[in-house]
């Protein structure tokens, strides 16, 4: 996979101090966006122009100053692409060192040097040994081995409270270690990777699981290049064109029909776990397809009148931080809170008794995983009992929300904003433009699946 480059003009903000400023007259930097493995990084050039002048750059007749800027940014693009071709394998950090750092064409004020989190935060990981095989395996921290490089990743993720990500690297290491032991990084060749895949497939391991292991291995190798533990060599690097290509695991995004949704919603059951799982699933669905983890982090202070305003943690290891999302709190969601929520509605209390104050990152991850698995296991059982062909999982609620909103004609901007797939400024600007009444109106689309079935509704209420 090759890196892609794009020059763009930084968007305006919605901050109060900017509201009175004519955006056409406001100077903003021209930026270079570099995307690799679907992860973008942005770099501000030293060229600051107004939106009006930026639009003129593609026109034939412009001022001498704009001509100079136009020539400079063209040079940036050409040199960036040349540098990228020379980096084999490519990585963001290597590109920054080779092209961005100390380059007079880029603003250096916001550049951050990578720090070793272990040295900064300490290295007591004994309490994590039970959960992480890599931490309790003796003799693996030998420089130049996979154990040394994987261990660095795992410890950094733990220190950053990214337990889920740390576990993925731990799982990847365990797979490689159990296959060939604590081998040298130089032994990771194209033939090794192919042999590993054949071994796993022969042992009935899904190809998607193999791909997950190898994606994390690739990240470890790229980091080793950046750290100088391996020499960048296009002949020995196992991934890429004409070598081993990690398959993209894509699933056809299916959804429940309206009849299946109605059947699931109105199912009567005497089992408390079934009732809990169903209720939480529909809470996820009605709350903009909210991720289970974000639901468990909700506090009563996030509820205001008829709406929930919450901050969703962005995908791990991206440059984005947080995005506030607004969801309409309908009567069904209120009923779930009343039935399953904490009775003490102090603004600082969690809405649901899944998490408790004072938990560390590992305990939080354990609690989140335990509750999500419980919901998943029981919704799957409900689906089988109702003879619904599609497997019902918490993740399906998010897909169902997006599919139903799209089918009803909601705009892509609204759906992305509701899911938290846009930048913070873009989402806030869009929600501000449509207002909370429109959010409520759009949310009512999700009630469409309900049928006029008084008997079913009475049974559900009784359950």
Query: Tally of extended strands?
Result: 6
Spatial gap, N to C terminus: 52 Å
For the record, what CATH class of the largest domain applies? Answer: Mainly Alpha
Overall number of domains: 3
Number of helices: 17
Mean pLDDT: 82
Q: Tell me, what's the shape?
A: globular
> Uncertain segments of ≥5 residues (pLDDT<50)?
13-21, 112-121, 314-321, 454-459
User: Biggest β-sheet: count, sense, barrel?
Assistant: 3 strands, antiparallel
Strand content: 5-15%
Helix content: 40-55%
CATH architecture of the largest domain: Orthogonal Bundle
Mind telling me the C-alpha Rg? 26 Å
CATH topology type of the largest domain: hpI Integrase, Chain A
Note the run of SSEs as H and E. EEEHHHHHHHHHHHEEEHHHHHH
Strand order of the largest sheet: 1-2-3
Q: Structural class of the secondary structure composition?
A: mainly alpha
Domain Tyr recombinase: 251-444
Protein name: Site-specific recombinase XerD
Family: Belongs to the 'phage' integrase family.
GO biological process, one term: DNA integration
SSE topology sketch:
Elements: E1 4-9, E2 28-36, E3 39-49, H1 51-56, H2 64-86, H3 92-100, H4 117-121, H5 146-159, H6 163-180, H7 190-202, H8 207-226, H9 258-266, H10 272-286, H11 292-296, E4 303-304, E5 307-313, E6 322-328, H12 331-340, H13 361-385, H14 394-407, H15 412-419, H16 424-443, H17 454-462
Antiparallel strand pairs: 1-2, 2-3, 4-5, 5-6
Helix pairs in contact: 5-6, 5-8, 6-8, 10-12, 10-13, 10-14, 15-16
């Amino acid at each position: 996979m090759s890196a892609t480059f794009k020059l763009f003009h930084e968007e305006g903000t919605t901050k109060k101090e900017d509201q009175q400023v004519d955006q056409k007259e406001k100077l903003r930097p021209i930026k270079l966006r570099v995307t690799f493995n679907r992860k973008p990084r942005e770099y501000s050039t030293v060229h600051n122009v107004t939106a009006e002048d930026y639009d003129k750059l593609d026109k034939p007749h412009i001022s001498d100053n704009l001509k100079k800027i136009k020539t400079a940014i063209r040079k940036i693009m050409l040199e960036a692409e040349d540098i990228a071709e020379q980096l084999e394998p490519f990585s963001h950090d290597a590109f920054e060192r080779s092209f961005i750092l100390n380059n007079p064409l880029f603003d250096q004020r916001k550049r951050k040097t990578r720090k070793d989190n272990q040295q900064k935060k300490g290295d007591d990981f004994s309490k994590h040994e039970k959960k992480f095989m890599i931490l309790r395996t003796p003799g693996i921290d030998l420089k130049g081995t996979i154990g040394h490089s994987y261990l660095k990743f795992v410890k950094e993720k733990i220190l950053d409270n990214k337990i889920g990500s740390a576990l993925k690297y731990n799982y990847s290491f365990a797979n490689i270690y159990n296959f060939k032991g604590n081998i040298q990084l130089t032994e990771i060749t194209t033939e090794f990777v192919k042999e590993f895949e054949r071994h796993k497939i022969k042992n009935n391991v899904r190809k998607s699981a193999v791909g997950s292991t190898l994606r994390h291995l690739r990240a470890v190798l790229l980091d080793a290049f950046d750290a100088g533990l391996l020499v960048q060599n296009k002949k020995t690097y196992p991934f890429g064109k004409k070598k081993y290509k990690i398959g993209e695991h894509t699933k056809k995004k299916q959804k429940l029909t309206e009849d299946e949704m109605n059947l699931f919603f109105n199912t009567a059951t005497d089992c408390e776990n079934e009732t809990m799982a169903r209720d939480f699933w529909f809470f996820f669905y009605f709350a903009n397809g909210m991720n289970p983890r974000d639901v468990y982090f909700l506090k009563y202070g996030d509820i205001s009148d008829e709406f929930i305003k919450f901050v969703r943690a962005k995908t791990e290891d991206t440059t984005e931080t947080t995005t506030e999302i607004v969801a309409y709190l309908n009567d069904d969601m209120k009923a779930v809170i009343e039935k399953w929520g904490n009775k003490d509605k102090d603004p600082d209390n969690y809405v649901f008794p899944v998490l408790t104050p004072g938990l560390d990152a590992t305990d939080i991850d354990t609690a989140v995983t335990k509750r999500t698995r419980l919901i998943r296991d029981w919704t799957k059982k409900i689906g089988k009992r109702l003879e619904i062909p599609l497997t019902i999982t918490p993740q399906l609620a998010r897909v169902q929300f997006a599919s139903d909103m799209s089918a009803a004609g909601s705009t892509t901007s609204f759906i992305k904003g509701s899911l938290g797939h846009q930048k913070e400024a873009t989402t806030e600007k869009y929600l501000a433009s449509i207002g909370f009444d429109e959010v409520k109106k759009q949310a009512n689309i999700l009630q469409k699946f309900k049928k006029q079935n008084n008997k079913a509704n009475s049974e559900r209420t009784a359950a």
